[in-house]
Amino acid sequence: MATLVTGAFGCIGSWVVRRLLATGEIPVVYDLGDNPWRMKMIVGPERLRDVPLIKGDIADRDHLARVVGEHHITRIIHLAAWQVPLCRQDPVGGARVNVVGTATVFETARAYKGQVTRVVYFSSAAVFGPPGLYGPGPVSDDSPPKPATHYGVYKVANEETARIYWEEHRIPSIGFRPLSVYGPGRDFGVTADPTLAMKAAVLGRPFRIRWGGSSDLIYVDDVATACLAAADAELPGARVYNLHGESAAIARVVSLIEEAWPAARGLISHADTPIPFPAALADHGYQRDLGPKPRTALSDGIRKTIEEFEHLKGDGRLDARELSPEGG
Asked: 166 with 234: CB under 8 angstroms?
């Protein structure tokens, strides 16, 4: 078994690599970046020396296919993507990375159909629209997509791409739709602000979360757990699952940060305008087909995140480049 992780220098990718290394597997990493600083922070520089790091463009089909062939890859965990801010700034570039890149992954899996057994990829709860479009209660797996961003539109396209590759070529896949992923390493994108606030708290800096309302927050290690469960599964079809953590108001998130790190009282604030995504997700499909999987309570996840930030700070490995001197 050999796993290729694309876009692994990001938050989820770093935790997936950490989890794979813990099982004894050394994954192959494929990323366009030059500096795996998040992965060094999450995995540790010593373990990272064991991991093959291949620089590559996710939309370069020939290069990706060559890597899959040379490293005898049997499953692909596809995480390469642009987040909401970059897709808003450059919709054409976002489409190339998010849509063309995902099609490239599936086409590579088709080219190595006898070798690659599964694609795991990440969609997003951004395929759904604001809460008011869906009525009361959590949004389910089969709720209609009504994306409010370019990023969400691209994720809908990727889910449909996965469906077509199953229907026409029998390439099995599992996609996940998390909303606000938080935890060490989460530092970019609209929903990264709660994690940035936790890091600012440990550093003693003020920080303002740029949105309010409520969101479905899921601890990053729970996301990595789902990812590896999907990679190990033998389920047929092109399946897409919501991932649910805990739905909470951002004001409560601020309170929990202050409880976990009392020195942060008065440092963390938030805006009132909600983000245009559902406030809560239902993950019955994931729990039924790949679970049951326990969820990290929000209070525990915030405490774990702050404790890890504190540990990294003590080791001199807490990277704060994404925090401005003014703190947000």
From this structure: no
Composition of the chain by helix, strand, coil, percent to 5: 45, 15, 40
Task: Give Rg (Cα) of the chain.
Answer: 19
Global pTM?
Answer: 0.95
- Cα-based distances in Å from 133 to 136, 159, 178, 278, 289: 9, 21, 19, 9, 28
* In contact, 30 and 8? CB cutoff 8 Å: yes
Residues of the chain with pLDDT under 70: 324-328
End-to-end C-alpha distance for the chain, whole angstroms: 43
The span from the CA of 23 to the CA of 16, in Å, is 11
> What is the CA 164 to chain-centroid distance, rounded?
23
DSSP string covering 25-51:
---EEEES-S--HHHHHHH-HHHHTTS
The span from the CA of 5 to the CA of 8, in Å, is 6
Contact at 8 Å (CB) between 4 and 76? yes
Q: What is the DSSP letter of 275?
A: P
Domains of the chain as residue ranges with CATH: 3-179+219-244+275-295 (3.40.50.720)
Distance of CA 243 to the CA centre of its chain: 11
Residues 149-208 pLDDT 10s: 999 999 999 999 999 999 999 999 999 999 999 999 999 888 999 999 999 999 999 999
Q: Are 182 and 303 in contact (CB under 8 A)?
A: no
Chain mean position to CA 306: 19
In the numeric block, which tokens belong to residue 291?
């679970």
Residue 219 C-beta-side C-alpha neighbours within 13 Å = 18
Which among 185, 198, 182 is positioned nearest to 260, based on CA atoms?
A: 198
SS3 214: strand
DSSP state of 280: -
